[in-house]
Structures are given as C-alpha cells and as structure tokens.
Amino acid sequence: MINRVKVLCKRGGILAAILMSCMVFTTQPVCAGEAEQTGEIHLKYTPVQEAQFWVYRVGDITDSWEFELTGEFKEFQMDLNALDTESMAAAAQTLASYVKADRIEADHSGRTDMNGDLYFSGLAKGVYLIDGESIIHEGVRYDPVPVLVTVPSMNEAGEWVYETEVETKYETFIPTGEKKEYRIVKYWSNDGDGSVRPKDITVEILKDGERHSVQTLSEENDWSYVWKTEDDGSVWQVVERNIPEGYTVMVEKNQTAFMISNTYREGGKEPPKTGDGTALLYTAILLFLSGLILIIAGLTIWRRKRDAKQVHKR
Q1: Which DSSP string do the residues of 263-286 spell out, in sequence order?
Q2: How far is residue 150 from each of residues 19, 107, 143, 162, measured CA to CA in Å?
Q3: Are 18 and 147 in contact (CB under 8 A)?
Q4: What is the pTM of this model?
C-alpha cells in the first residue's frame, strides 16, 4: 500500500508536510539498524516528455532529527527547522534561485521518459531540493515547481521510508509579447523597531538563469524596485546578496511580484519593540484585576459561611 508522506521537524515540534508544490508517496518502511541505507526518489512529471530535472542535497539530518544546511548551501541564511507547510514551498523556490545564480552543480540529474517517469537512486540520508527546467511547448511555458524532500520520510503510519514517489506540480504561462511589469518588495520581520536593520540591501535579478541587473533597495525607494520588459517567455528570479547578519532570507514569487523577507533570529532573541511599555502596563492591569477577583471571591465565600452560621444559631 502506498502512503502519503509527512516529515517531522523536531525544532519547535512542527509537523511539516513536505507536500508543498507536489504530492509525495512512499513505500518500503525503514527497519532498525539501517542507518547507512540509501534511498530512491521516483519523480512523476507528465505535461511534457524528456523534461530535465536536477537533484541537490541541501541539508543534513542530525541524530536528533534536526535539519542543517550543508555544502555550498551552508552560506545561505535559512533555518530549515523553522519552516512550516506554508513556508516550505517558498524555501524551495529561494534555494532554487540561489542554485541558478551561483551555478551550483547538481548531485544528480536526468530526463523523464516517455511516461513522465524519472528515478534517482543511491541517495544518502538528508534534505534534497528537486528542480526542473522550464520548457515552452506549443506556445505554453511549463515551469516545474521546486520542492524539498527528505530521505527518509515519514508516512502516515509513522514509519520512516526510503522510497519516495513525487508527483511534481507545475505552472503554465502563455507569453503575450507585450510589456509586463515586475516588482520586488522587501519585507522585514521580527526585528522590532528596525534599529538592527542595514541601511540598504543588494538584490540580483536573473533572466533565464543569467544575471540581468543588480539593484539596491532602501528606505529611499520604499525597499522596492519595479521594471518593465517584454513578455517573451523568459523566466525571472531574484536573490538577495550579502544577507544582513542575524537575519534569515526567504523569497516568495507570485506571477510578476517577488517578496523578499528577512526575519531577525540572532541568538533566538528579539530586539526591543516599540510599545513594549504599553504591553507591560496591560499585563500589570490584568494581574491586578485577577488579584481583585480572587479577593472578591474570597470575601464572598467568607460572607456565605458567616451567614450560614448565623442561620444555624437561630
């Protein structure tokens, strides 16, 4: 029986289903003592034949089942353990963009057969990024959606399995030949009053995997950039360079918009936030009211007991 896979993220107790942008199924449960066993990924992709796919081992899985970026991916500021089901797809998209920008060599590659099948075997325990090429077929561009998969993965029965089937999702676009507007927006998260932010950031724009331009975002341009270009079927991506210390990075793409998020996580502590004094005041008021309620409740009980004694004496 084939089961849908779920992956357990130990950090923060997050049960993250690595099913974003794909459907994942597995067989062959893991038995005790198989720490050195290798895995296999069976990729299913049907919109076009002989589509090129690449597999990158982006992370290790520790003995405590936490995820750590490895190899050339270590330098990218991303916490795999902090991902949930919503941010998993964005993480895959972000890493895929860096792969193109930095020309990182794939660990495995291949093309789908006439039935849309492709097998990657001999995979060591770890976290893998699967990415595919964009193809224009009969006037339609097909973009495979990057996905993160772990080897092994956990199925619905709670078993760790080493054989995984991935049905890759894809997006379709029809080039119009007309001018289209693209936009980059910077978003800061978890950094309080912004006192630790840099004065600007550097963003590299890629066109079909090649550097198109480098832009600087700052308060002066509202941390954003807009450009117009002919809709000729080209694939656009963006990556942030020189990521600020203490921040993680995530890039989300929605048609023609890119949102770059930097989340502050240095030392696991948040910097001071504007309005914290108000929050403390509310907390003090709540504590005072809670104490007052307890006092009133105590007096009520005492009065009832007193009245009961008086009635008994009568």
Answers
A1: EE-GGG-PPP-TTHHHHHHHHHHH
A2: 11, 15, 22, 9
A3: yes
A4: 0.75
Tell me the per-residue pLDDT of 42-72, one tens digit each, with 9 for 90 and over: 999 988 889 999 999 999 999 888 999 999 9
**Contact residues for 186 (Cβ-Cβ < 8 A; gap 6+):** 201, 217, 223, 224, 260, 262
What is the average pLDDT score of the chain? 80
Report all structural domains of the chain as residue ranges with CATH numbers, in order of start. 3-173 (2.60.40), 179-268 (2.60.40.1140)
What are the residues whose beta carbons fall under 8 Å from the beta carbon of 99, sequence distance 6 or more? Answer: 54, 56, 129, 131
Whether residue 272 has pLDDT greater than 80: no
24: which strand partners? Answer: 166
The span from the CA of 211 to the CA of 86, in Å, is: 29
Find residue 158's DSSP bridge partners: none
Q: Are 243 and 77 a contacting pair, CB within 8 Å? A: yes
Tokens representing 98?
């860096």
Helices (H) and strands (E) in the chain, counts: 2, 22
Confidence of residue 310 (pLDDT cuts 50, 70, 90): low
